[in-house]
Amino acid sequence: MKLTLRVWRQKNADADGAMSTYEVDGISPDMSFLEMLDTLNEELTLEGEDPVAFDHDCREGICGACSLVINGDAHGPERTTTCQLHMRSFKDGDTIDVEPWRAAAFPVVKDLVVDRTAFDRIIQAGGYVSVPTGSAPEAHATPVPKPDADLAFEHAECIGCGACVAACPNGAAMLFTSAKINHLNVLPQGAPERETRVLDMVAQMDDEGFGGCTLAGECATACPKGIPLFSITAMNKEWLRATAKGTGR
């Protein structure tokens, strides 16, 4: 396959960025999108040019590091992570636009790399459970109804990639935050911080500068792990419940 790539290049956070055009040839349909970018970078390196910076780690669709907007879609045309997107999703001769996540709370570091530590701070605000010191409790000591366990697992699948933010017209982080809140709040182990968790994590989300949610639904459509839109509704209910109880931060 021969492709034309229009890639966002930005030297650093303070520099102005622009799209640069590159031609790549000999791309196999079985390559992943990141392998295709590796091929481009090998050519750029041989030509003495600066390779394109992009985030990646496991390349198995688990870590959420790969974060690219491809032809206007978070992670590209398939509902998967960028590292699991294969070049057979494109045609020979295609022109492909590759850009970083676009959100005020995700500033560009270089080229296609953005700073997503805002997510880390949201989790630090309350995405944990209290555990006593000493030996670990017996795994089956606290029974969990299967519907609750299934719901917790469904929300725990969130890999924090940020596709929900990138796809949202408002740059909201409601789906990510709701997933991190709900997967703990439905379990008995998460009960001690149930009220403070939702209040603190939502407050931190707002402090990070993410946009407001208008339930456009693009977040759930773009989520590679299928976090459902009703997760946001569940979080709102938790927030109203905590507010009604008068729990302070």
Plain-language structure description:
The protein has 249 residues and is of the alpha+beta class. The protein contains eight helices and seven strands, in the order ββαβββββααααααα. The protein starts with a strand and ends in a 5-residue tail after the last helix. The model has no long low-confidence stretch (mean pLDDT 94).
Unreliable segments of 5+ consecutive residues: none
Biggest sheet, spatial arrangement of strands: 2-1-5-3-4
Shape: elongated
Distinct helical segment count: 8
Structural class: alpha+beta
Radius of gyration: 20 Å
Give the tally of β-strands.
Answer: 7
Summarize the structure.
This protein is an alpha+beta fold and about 250 residues long.
Task: Using brief descriptors, characterize the structure shown.
alpha+beta, 8 helices, about 35% helix
